[in-house]
Specification:
Layout (H helix, E strand, L loop, with lengths): L2 H31 L1 H14 L9 H14 L5 H37 L5 H33 L3 H25 L3 H26 L11 H35 L3 H21 L7 H9 L4 H37 L6 H18 L3 H7 L3 H26 L1 H28 L3 H9 L2 H9 L3 H6 L4 H23 L2 H27 L1
Helix pairs in contact: 1-2, 1-6, 2-5, 3-4, 3-5, 3-10, 4-5, 5-7, 6-7, 8-9, 8-14, 8-15, 9-12, 10-13, 11-12, 11-16, 11-17, 11-19, 12-15, 14-15, 17-19
Length: 516
């Protein structure tokens, strides 16, 4: 199994561990901390959250320069080392900015939250905040070295690091909570692990990969690239923060019934998981995108580049959409109760249009390779403004459906039209052929697999056991249709090859374990 496949598998494993962390550890943290400490923990987490936005996409810049060095003879090792050094310097400057902002915010905590919390709780909150700021700083300083790892296509290492971190984090939090430690210990684990990741990543990049940063000059072109690309990433991060919270904020202003806000927030949580499941792949294709762009690839080549990973993303997307359409009501009933069943329709409404950008998001690697992310960031700003305007107008008339409608229209206008027109005009990509090829065979397989499962959705009771059973039956039928006519021989070889190699790795692991 090659580095890219293992990396994607490990990234999905990390995603699953993160989901387990949220589902199982959250109730444990609430019961261990108590309402007051858990409340201050979440408040400080949200308060420090915006500071994590200032990473500027340094990892992407470093990845791109290393691939350019390997691909373009004119790009010298001196330029590569200088770019890495400038990128590391940019991370250090932004880290200093975050520390200064953190100090100011730290001083504001008593004024902002003093009316709702006691002096002892505020002291705990300030300690928690400091540790969150430390984690953000360590994460920023890690970016340049992470770019060195991805640029050298060491995807196994780049994906194993966050997975190991998540597993260790879950294990340590579970043990400490069972012993009786509180909220401060959980955040301390986060901070210490962030520092450990920084040290390991730096040692691996400089020691093993020999990617030693060396500042030889303050090259105006390189600095301009870092500033412009970093500004685009920062703008995108700010807009994403707004987009992720705008619906809930608008509903909080216009809707008095708190159960509706709880329902909509729950729907957005599922929607976020769906986004995460489909968005794992693109990171692993930046080196290849940089190589293609460096060789002046044609629009046809760039289209083909997006299609293959897009088809595997479509396999997951179609399974999620049809599976949720069939059994989502069962899921909502088990998860948060019949009272919040409107979440089913909100989730389904949001999942369908966002699938358009998700299955083609490998194209973002092309934007990164050409340092043209600023257009996408501008589109996201337009989408955010459009979402706010439509939501504010419609919420007054149709309630939470108005917020969902605003999000849907902004997704279709921004990602469906503006981005694809840009891809077609700037990179000469064949958008129509791309989408036809991505969904060819996969969409019909989803439709046909759904038909025999309708009776299961209608007649079987809404219990956890039946829900799991229904999902398994649907997946088996869906993959039967996929292997019958949905995917081609090359894709079958990729899937079976990955499964066989994965089985061999497990066999080796068991042999080593038995020997020891």
């Amino acid at each position: 199994m090659n580095q890219k496949k293992i990396g994607i598998l490990l990234s999905y494993s990390n995603l699953i561990v993160g989901m387990v962390l949220n589902i199982f550890l959250t109730p444990l943290m609430i019961s261990s901390f108590g309402d007051v400490d858990y409340s201050i923990f979440k408040v400080m987490q949200s308060f420090a959250g915006p500071l994590s936005m200032f990473h500027l996409g340094i990892s992407t810049i470093v990845t791109r320069c290393i691939v350019k060095y390997k691909t373009i003879p004119e790009f010298t090792e001196k330029e590569k080392k200088n770019t890495i050094a400038l990128s590391l310097l940019a991370s250090a400057v932004m880290s200093l900015f975050v520390i200064i902002a953190g100090v100011i915010m730290y001083m504001m905590i008593p004024k902002m939250y003093g009316a709702n919390y006691s002096a002892d709780t505020l002291l705990l909150g300030r300690k928690i905040f400091v540790l969150f700021v430390g984690s953000a700083v360590f994460h920023m300083l890690t970016d340049a070295f992470s770019g060195c790892i991805i640029g050298n296509e060491k995807f196994t290492v780049s994906s194993a690091i966050p997975l190991c971190r998540s597993v260790i984090k879950v294990g340590m939090i579970f043990v400490l909570l069972k012993i009786g430690f509180g909220a401060l210990s959980v955040v301390m684990i986060e901070c210490v692990l962030s520092l450990a990741v920084l040290v390991f990543t730096a040692l691996y990049a400089m020691g093993y990969l020999k990617e030693i940063p060396k500042l030889s000059s303050f090259d105006k072109k390189q600095i301009t690239e870092i500033v412009l690309f970093g500004s685009a990433i920062l703008l995108q991060a700010v807009v994403n923060q707004v987009n992720n919270n705008v619906d809930t904020m608008i509903l909080g202003v216009y809707i008095s019934e708190k159960a509706i806000i709880t329902m909509y927030s729950s729907a957005l949580a599922v929607y976020g998981v769906y986004n995460s499941l489909i968005s794992v792949v693109p990171t692993f294709f930046l080196p290849k995108a940089t190589k293609l762009v460096s060789k002046n690839a044609s629009g046809k080549e760039l289209t083909d580049f997006v299609i293959l990973p897009g088809r595997f993303q479509a396999i997951i997307a179609v399974a999620c959409i049809f599976g949720f359409a069939l059994f989502g009501r069962n899921f909502i009933s088990i998860w948060i109760g019949e009272k919040y069943m409107d979440a089913y329709w909100v989730i389904l409404m949001l999942m369908i249009p966002v699938t358009i950008p998700l299955v083609e998001n490998t194209a973002i690697s092309i934007l990164d390779a050409t340092l043209k992310r600023i257009y996408r960031s501008t589109v996201l700003v337009i989408m955010a403004v459009l979402n706010v305007i439509i939501s504010v107008i419609l919420v007054s008339f149709i309630g939470f459906w108005g917020a969902a409608t605003g999000t849907i229209i902004s997704l279709i206008v921004g990602h469906g039209f503006m981005m694809n027109i840009y891809y077609a005009k700037t990179f000469k990509m064949e958008i129509g052929r791309m989408f036809r090829s991505i969904f060819k065979g996969i969409l019909p397989a989803g439709i046909l697999a759904s038909l025999p499962c309708i009776p299961l959705a209608v007649f079987l009771k809404d219990t956890l056991l039946f829900f799991v059973l229904k999902c398994i039956i649907f997946i088996i039928i869906y993959f039967a249709f996929l292997f019958w006519f949905g995917i081609d021989e090359n894709e079958k070889k990729i899937i079976f090859g990955s499964l066989n190699k994965g089985k061999k790795l497990l066999d080796k692991f068991h042999k080593v374990k038995s020997a020891t």
